[in-house]
C-alpha cells in the first residue's frame, strides 16, 4: 500500500511516521520548503520526501493520500488526485483508523483552543492518561504511532473535518459558529457550517454532542438536521433541562442525573465567552466521571492559553494584552467586549472575508486609537475611519508597540487582537504574539 503525504509540516510528518510503522510505502511531498527540524525527523525515520514541487508520477500512484489542512481542495494536485478517484483524507481520519481509544473532538469558530486545553487539563487532573492533539501541539498521528495514551482530546478545525470519512468522536463539542475561513469555502457560510457539523456525522446513540444553545446557527442546523448522538446544550441565557445553564452567577450542570455547581467568580478565566468554555469542558469532565472536587479545583486554577487574552505586562499603569490568536472578527468581538478601560487596538493582517460591522458598537464605546498592522489595511481604515479619531498604519510590530505606548495614557489598555490571519508579516499567530510580547518587554 502506497501512502502519499502532501505537506511536510507537523501533521504530514506525524502521518508519515505512523504510515511507515503500519507497513505503508510512504512518500512526503511539499510544494513549499520543509523546515529543517522536520527534514531531520524524515531522515531519521528513513522516509522519502521532496520539497518545492509535487512530482506527479510519485504522487498519482498512491493508494491513499493524506492532505495537510493548509492545502486547499482547489490546488491542482488535489484536483488531479480526486479526478483519478484516489482517496484524499485528513490526518485525523488516517490516524483514527489505527486506534480503538476514546476521543473527544472539539470544534467551533472561537474558544476551541481554550476549551480543548481546559478539557484536557480537567481530565488530566482527574487522573486519566489522555493525549492532547489535533490543531494543537504534537500531531495526532505521531502520538498514535508512539502509543502512549489511552485516548485523546482533539482540537479540530473545519479543514481537518473536511477530510474525515469514518472518524467519530465519543464526545463532540461545538463551541460556537461565526464566519471564518470563508476564502476556503467559496465565501459561502453554509459550506463552512456543514464542515463544522461533520464532527457529529458518524456519531451513534452511545455518543454525545455538547453545544452552545445560545448560538443561532447551531440551533438552526440542529432543527433541520438530525444527529444520532445524545445532545447536551449549555446556555448563558436560559434554563436547559439536561445540560448546563447559569443562575444567580452560578454554573449549574445536570448530566446523567448528576448535578454540579460552581460560582462564576471562582473561575480562573475571565469573560462571558470563558464561562461558556468552562461549561463545555465541565460537561466533558462529568461524562468522563471526573470527581466534582477535581473539576471545581481545576476550573479555579487553570492558567489559560498563550496568545489568547494573555496579560503581558503593566507599564506606567497601561496594561498590554496579547490576543494574537484572534484571527477572525468574532474572536476580536470577545476581546473588545471584555475591555473595561479605554483601549488602543492593534489590528490587521490577512483578511479572510471579515465583516467589521459587528465590531462597530464596541469600537465606538471602547477604542480610542487603532494601529493597523498589515500589508493591506484599506478595509479596516474604511470601516473605522469615521468612528475612531486616531488611525495609524505600520508593517512592523516593534513600531506598532511603540506607537501604542505613545498613544496610551495611564489606566488604558493596549490590545493586540488582529481579527485577521498573520501570514502577510508573520509565520503564524504564535510568532506574531511572541514578537508583540518581546516588543512590550523591550519598552
TrEMBL record:
ATP binds at residues 108-114. GO terms for cellular component: cytoplasm. Residues 307-420 form the Mur ligase C-terminal domain. It is found in: Cytoplasm. Pathway: Cell wall biogenesis; peptidoglycan biosynthesis. It comes from the Bacteria. Keywords: ATP-binding, Cell cycle, Cell division, Cell shape, Cell wall biogenesis/degradation, Cytoplasm, Ligase, Nucleotide-binding, Peptidoglycan synthesis. It catalyses: UDP-N-acetyl-alpha-D-muramoyl-L-alanine + D-glutamate + ATP = UDP-N-acetyl-alpha-D-muramoyl-L-alanyl-D-glutamate + ADP + phosphate + H(+). Its EC number is 6.3.2.9. One of its GO terms (biological process) is regulation of cell shape. Cell wall formation. Catalyzes the addition of glutamate to the nucleotide precursor UDP-N-acetylmuramoyl-L-alanine (UMA). This is UDP-N-acetylmuramoylalanine--D-glutamate ligase. It comes from Flavobacterium beibuense F44-8. The gene is murD.
